[in-house]
């Protein structure tokens, strides 16, 4: 049985899609590259205000990207309340605050896990500063990704580093306001290659559980070894109520940070299928769906628009899975029947439904084309000279 979207009652699916929001990273709009070359693109933002303005364009044409994450100190401004009202004036909000404790020379051997207490103090203070910023921006999430790790066996004590990490995190956690959360990201390698201090979801989860209910795991889809079953991790974290956020992107090899849904749209669908199955798509479910991407060779605003659309398409396919038929086939031990329910949904073209939904909400059905026709890209090229680099990696 294939799914006939034309005749099916898609009201609930449309409502769920209309409520879905995706958070954009400020660093996606600046110049970025690899360690070989950063290709400068004309018209890129020169400051955080212009990054927010570009992010607002993505929201304008998709209607689904109402928040933008900031990175401190890349996005440091004198007056965050002013940046906040500027964003709100453009119809978007400031989202997660990303701490950056990896760019300073002091952090060569780590930050919260560093053997020297002075460096650990500095790293904790950098996070406390982020929490102050969050009070001004109205942000809920403090996103922590640490570059901490070791390159050589014996370089430092693995267990002692976990103890220092726990200690630093608990001081940061204690400074959170009642509605704020730590979202703790893991990554299996890079920049360290022998051992990383938060390499996997289990380590992140253990620290989150020790901290308390306001600490949640961030799953960056590019941060796993090839072949990892990411949807299993999603299901597991949802079971224990600790999936705080996604950093969506695509990987072919390592932490490629390419557009989500470009490398493996089926994997993205399988992830969203777990989300829908656990009823975690609801805006109040506590899962923040963020992008963490860099657009080194493609134009940045259309790439973010495309990425939002890719998430929407995967979500729509997950929403149309016939859950009753799936359950029935699973209970009847009908292996192929159950599998076909999943494949039927995945193979359905949901683009016309999404185009229709946009029309219904007063948007152009084709966001990339509408943006291209708007003249914004030409305007920023003319107006902005000397755009900024996003910062190292993502
Ligand atoms: C680093 O690999 C992580 O993906 C971080 O989430 C984040 O992108 C970084 O802090 C920005 O460079
Ligand atoms: Zn990330
Ligand atoms: Zn990453």
UniProtKB/TrEMBL annotation:
Keywords: Cytoplasm, Isomerase, Manganese, Metal-binding, Rhamnose metabolism
SUPFAM superfamilies reported for this sequence: Xylose isomerase-like (SSF51658)
Signal peptide: none
InterPro entries: L-rhamnose_isomerase, Rhamnose_iso-rel, Rhamnose_isomerase, Xyl_isomerase-like_sf
GO molecular function: isomerase activity
Keyword Nucleotide-binding (UniProt): no
Highest taxon in the source lineage: Bacteria
Entry-linked NCBIfam families: RhaI_grampos
Protein name as it appears in the record: L-rhamnose isomerase
